[in-house]
Amino acid sequence: MEYTQAPATISQATILCCTCGVPIPPNPANMCVACLRTQVDISEGIPKQVAVSFCKQCERYLQPPATWMACALESRELLALCLKKIKSSMTRVRLIDAGFLWTEPHSKRIKMKVTIQKEVMNGAILQQVFVVEFVIQYQMCDDCHRVEAKDFWKAVVQVRQKTVHKKTFYYLEQLILKHKLHQNSLNIKEVNDGIDFYFGSKQHAQKMVDFLQCTVPCRSKTSLRLISHDIHSNTFNYKSTYSMEIVPVCKDNVVCLSPRLAQSLGNMGQIVVCARVTSTIHLIDPNTLQIAEVDGNTYWRNPFNSVCNRRQLEEFIVMDTDIIRNQKLGAGAGVRSTKHTLAEVWVQKTSEMDTSQQYHCRTFLGHLLNIGDLVLGFDFANSNVNDDNLEKMNPHYVPDVVLIKKSYNRSRRVRRRNWKLQEMVKDREDMGTDDERQYQDFLEDLEEDEALRKNVNIYRDASKKPVESDNEDDGAPSVSLVEMLEELTIVDATEEEGGADMME
């Protein structure tokens, strides 16, 4: 018979604490944790209360030396920012864990629980948990300071256009709103013949300049003004000014090209109509339907001005129309428009209906005009125009009348319009009657030109009540509901609750 001996249980040896005599497992310090903590404080040198700068305007925290960060309460970003404030004092300890303790959001206090380890007496590792309190101090950041000052700017972009009508500025305003380039500006001021954009940094101004050069045909000029100079550190403080001059041509302007430019554009006629102004000037020849685009560089090499403005257009009534088909162009002719129809029309001024005076001309509006329609045009036969290129032209090639656009009942169009546009907040005087008329012209251009509407955010006007269709529909173009956006309105929840309590 064999006997087996049960294995003996191995009990861990214990020693007595050299200070309090409590049995403890052996450790290099021969002391219990409680006595060890009374002898050594590993959190010594780490500040228990730290100040954090906070901007109330933009709700950002300062990360030294000069960076402002947007951090939500109890977020990773705020935790990293707080740890960086005490990082320099934690070089001799090891960070184990860190987290936030709940505090009242309006207490201006942020409490963070930190767990650290450190090797103490004879290689013993001690772990300790303590709380660091961060006190929030209000300090306005540089960006908000510039916004509040409104005059503390580093760069200004001066946009100018020497023309009577402001169609190009209204179109440019919508592009800026769509791409949100106005958000970086400190102030927007409307001045004579243009707008000034003030920025707090040169980079934001340069971004605006690059956007304008890609959006409208223009040329720029930069200048610097010395504000201060430190001779010890050799630093200079400049204010930059960017002068942007937009070509003085707007939509529906009649222009007279130089013979050299007209030949380079496909042997088109010298008297043409500006159909649209985007990044280039879109021209159309009313005699041949030829179209061409002139960019900014080409324009400044061969400049041309508008022969007439919106105020000089007269109203004509169509007496007879005849569509021209299968017209042959000469050698070297450019591209023809497929969206327009060439026609020969007889027109008469509405102010001369009691006479028999009629005018014959060609027009690119053959797809829109019928007998009895009203149309706006410029009367070359009874006008005195001062233009160098027009004076050198053969009078035989100067038309009697150039028709620009079909005329509709404006009051009826305003009544039917159920959409609106956003506007930039800018310093300006009260809008006059002429500015209001020009703005209505721009809205009508958006209704008539679908390609122009693609670059503009159009919003549905909820305050406009639907109007019953009139018995006499003049066929005026309009904007469909598919092209409209819903305007975002933010309502405070407390206001809704307050309103509900008042109703009860």
From TrEMBL:
Pfam families assigned to the protein according to its UniProt record, in alphabetical order: NMD3, NMD_SH3, OB_NMD3
GO cellular component terms listed in the entry, alphabetical order: cytoplasm; nucleus
Start and end residues of each stretch annotated as Disordered: 460-479
Subcellular location: Cytoplasm; Nucleus
Domain 60S ribosomal export protein NMD3 OB-fold: 313-406
Domain Nmd3 N-terminal: 17-246
Predominant place of localization: cytoplasm
UniProt-listed InterPro entries: Nmd3 (IPR039768), Nmd3_N (IPR007064), NMD_SH3 (IPR048899), OB_NMD3 (IPR048898)
Limits of the 60S ribosomal export protein NMD3 SH3 domain: 249-295
Superkingdom, taxonomy of origin: Eukaryota
GO biological process, one term: protein transport
GO molecular function: ribosomal large subunit binding
Keywords recorded for this protein, A-Z: Cytoplasm, Nucleus, Protein transport, Transport
Keyword Nucleus: yes
Matches recorded under PANTHER family: 60S RIBOSOMAL EXPORT PROTEIN NMD3, NONSENSE-MEDIATED MRNA DECAY PROTEIN 3
Job of this protein: Acts as an adapter for the XPO1/CRM1-mediated export of the 60S ribosomal subunit.
Similarity comment: family membership: Belongs to the NMD3 family.
Name of this protein: 60S ribosomal export protein NMD3
Organism: Liparis tanakae
